[in-house]
Amino acid sequence: MNKEKFNRSIDNIDIPIEKLVAREEAAMFQGKRKRKVKQSAVRSLLIACGLCITLLGFGFVSTGMAETLSNLPIVGDALEEFVYSKDGSLHDYKTIIGKSVENNGTEVTLNEVILDDGQLLISSTFHTDLTDEDLDYNWHSEVDIYIDGKLSSDGGGGHVHGITNSAVNYFWTAFLQDIKLGVDQEIKIVFSHLKRNDLNKEIKGKWSFEFTASSEKLMENRETIQVNNHFSLEGGQQINVKELIITPVSTKLNYTMKNITEDISFKLEDQNGIEIQEFSAEPMGASNYNRFVALESDVTKLKVIPYIDFHDAERKEQILYDDIFEIDVK
Predict the structure, then answer these.
(1) Which candidate, 25, 83, 72, places its Cα nearest to that of 249?
(2) What are phi and psi of 216, to 5 degrees?
(3) How far, in Å, CA of 219 to CA of 215, rounded?
(4) Rounded to whole angstroms, how far apart are CA atoms 243 and 226?
C-alpha cells in the first residue's frame, strides 16, 4: 500500500483512545552527566501501546491520524510530566515528532521536544525486551544534540518513567550552548546505547533523529526581569544575581560568582511562602543558574533565598538569611 492510500485508510479508522493507552508504574530518577539535575518525584505516566507504536513505526501519519496521536499522552502530554506542568499546558510550545528508528534490533521513538531558554526537553521511548530483574534498575542513554550541524549539548540529565518488560520511557534535558531562540533550528538527536545503572547490562545501538523546531511561540511569552543584586561572603566570594528569565516551561535565575570557595545556590518561594520546585542547576562556575518549574499565574512576588550547599550528609545547607531579597514578577 502506498503512502497516499495508507493515509486515506487510517483516516477512516475509528480508534478508541482508551484501548490505546495503559497506565504504567513510574520509575526512578536518572542521574546527570556533567551538570546536576534535581531528583524528580515518582509519578505515573500514561503511555501509548500496541497500535500506536506500530503506526509510528511507519515514520509518517496522515493529517487526521496526526491529530489523534497528538492527543495521546505519550505524544501530546508527556513533557508536562517531566517539568511538573498541567496536562496540555505546553501544547503550543512543543514539536511533536512521533518518529521511530530501529538499530541493532531495538526500536526507539522520539515522541516530542520543547526548545526552552538554554535547554532542549526530550521525550523518547525505548522499545525493549527486558527481564523482570531489569525492572529493579534504572536505565540511561547517552544523548548528543546537534544544532545546525554543530554539537551543541553540554551535558544534561533526566529520568525514566514507566519501565516495563517492553518499554523504557526516557526523558532528557539537554543543556544547550549559544542557542538562538525564536528562529527555526535544524536539530539532530543521537541516542547511544541503553545501559542499566549497575553497568552489568547494555542494549547497544545508535538511534538518530533529524527535524526542525522553533521556540518562536515560547519567545512571545518569555520575560526577562533584571535583578543585579550583589552580596559577598566573609572569605571574599562575590555573587551577583543578574536576572530572572520566565517562560511557559521554566523559571531561570542567572547569577555570576568571583573568588569561588563555596557552592552557592538559590531557593524560590512565592508571596505565600510556597517553595517553587527546582528543576536543574549549573553551580560552582563564573556563570551559573538555578532553574525552577514554570510559575503559576497567581504568583506576583518571589523571595530569593541564597544558601551554601555543602554536599555533606551532616551539613546539607546553610541559608544566608542576611542576603534574602524579593523580586516582583507582576
Answers:
(1) 83
(2) -60, -45
(3) 6
(4) 5
- Angstrom distance (rounded) from CA 299 to CA 7: 46
H-helix or E-strand containing 185?
strand 184-196
Closest of 60, 62, 56 to residue 75, by C-alpha: 56
* Single-letter residue type at 72: L
C-alpha cell at 149: 550541524
Rounded CA gap, 238 and 169, in Å? 42
CA angle 141, 146, 150 (to 5 degrees): 140
Residue 68 has pLDDT above 50, yes or no: no
Give the residue carrying C-alpha cell 518513567: 161
Of 235, 152, 238, nearest in space to 187 by CA: 152
User: Exposed (0-12), middle (13-18) or buried (19+): which is 270, by Cβ within 10 Å?
Assistant: middle
Q: Domains, the chain, ranges and CATH? A: 3-219 (2.60.40.1630), 222-328 (2.60.40.1640)
- Residue whose grid cell is 508571596: 271
Report the 10 Å Cβ neighbour count for 37: 23
Q: What does the pLDDT look like over 133-171, one tens digit per residue?
A: 999 999 999 999 999 999 998 788 888 888 999 999 999
Please give the model's pTM, rounded to 2 decimal places.
0.75
Q: What is the 3-class SS of 26-51, one letter each residue?
A: CCCEEEECCCCECCCCCCCEEEECCH
